[in-house]
Specification:
224 residues, alpha/beta, Rossmann fold, 2 domains, 6-stranded mixed beta sheet, 4-stranded antiparallel beta sheet, 10 strands, binds adenosine-5'-triphosphate, nucleotide-binding, AAA+_ATPase
Length: 224
C-alpha cells in the first residue's frame, strides 16, 4: 500500500517558546523523494519529527491519506518510519539485533525479521558488521545501521533526517540510491539534507529558512 503525507500550514513551538516552524506546508507522494533543505537551525528536524507524530503542531495539520496524525503510535500504524539524525540505536546491542528488535516490535515474525535484517544490512554494505556491537562501529557504520533498520521496516512513508552526514562520497551515493529505490517501491520519501547536490537529485525540494518555507521546487505542497 502507498500513502501520501501532507503538511498543511503547520506551526510548531517547543513548550511555550516562539514557533520554530511557521505556516509550513509540504506534500510527499508515493514514488517521490522530497528534499528538505535549509541552514542549521532552520527547522528540518522539527518538521520531520512533526511528520512522524513526535511533535504536535499548535496550528495546521499533518495527514496521511487524509487521516490526521495525532501521535507517534498513530503514525507508526500508518507505516510512517523515521530514521533520526542521531541514529537512535541501542549501543549495547549488535547491528543485527537493533534491526531485528525494531521489526519484531512492529509485528514481524522472527524468521522473517532475521531474513529482512540480513538483506537490509547487506544492502548497506554491512554484512561484515552484523554481529558487532553498535558501540564498536564507526560513526558512518552506525549511521548505515540506522538506515538499514529504517529500510527493513518497509514503511509507506520514510522520513530520513540527515542520514548521509557521516558518510564518505561512495556510501553517500549508495544511500541516496537506496532512498530512490524506496520511492520506486512505492514509499513517499522525505530526506532532510545539507547537501545541495543530493537535494538537486530529488524530485522536489522544500527549503526552510528560520522555520518558514522560502523556496519550493516541485509540486504544489498541498495541492491548492
Ligand atoms: N528540544 C528543543 N527545545 C527547544 N528548542 C529546540 C529543540 N529542538 C530544536 N529546537 C530549536 O528549534 C529550531 C529548529 O531546530 P531543528 O533541529 O529543527 O533545525 P535543523 O534545521 O534540523 O538544524 P540542523 O541542520 O542543525 O540539524 C532551532 O532554533 C533549535 O534551537
Amino acid at each position: 500500500m502507498s500513502r501520501t503525507i501532507v503538511v498543511d500550514e503547520v506551526t510548531v513551538a517547543y513548550g511555550s517558546g516562539e514557533p520554530v516552524l511557521t505556516g509550513v506546508s509540504a506534500r510527499a507522494t508515493p514514488g517521490q523523494v522530497l528534499a528538505v533543505t535549509g541552514p542549521s537551525g532552520a527547522g528540518k528536524t522539527t518538521l520531520l519529527w512533526t511528520m512522524a507524530g513526535l511533535l504536535r503542531p499548535s496550528a495546521g495539520s499533518v495527514t496521511v491519506d487524509g487521516e490526521q496524525i495525532r501521535d507517534r503510535d498513530f503514525a507508526v500504524a500508518q507505516q510512517v518510519v523515521l530514521v533520526p539524525q542521531d541514529n537512535g540505536l541501542a549501543a549495547i546491542l549488535t547491528a543485527a539485533e537493533n534491526v531485528q528488535v525494531a521489526l519484531i516490535a512492529g509485528g514481524v515474525t522472527p524468521p522473517e525479521a532475521r531474513r529482512r535484517t540480513a538483506e537490509s544490512l547487506e544492502r548497506l554494505g554491512l554484512s561484515g558488521q552484523t554481529d558487532q556491537l553498535v558501540e564498536e562501529l564507526s560513526g558512518g557504520q552506525q549511521q548505515r545501521t540506522a538506515i538499514a533498520r529504517g529500510l527493513a521496516l518497509h514503511g509507506d512513508v520514510l522520513l530520513a533526517d540527515e542520514v548521509t552526514s557521516e558518510l564518505d562520497a561512495s556510501n553517500r551515493q549508495k544511500v541516496i540510491d537506496l532512498l530512490r529505490e524506496e520511492a520506486f517501491r512505492g514509499a513517499a520519501v522525505v530526506f532532510a539534507t545539507h547537501d545541495p547536490e543530493a537535494a538537486a537529485a530529488c524530485d522536489a525540494e522544500l527549503h526552510l529558512v528560520d522555520g518558514r518555507a522560502e523556496v519550493v521546487r516541485g509540486p504544489s505542497p498541498v495541492g491548492h
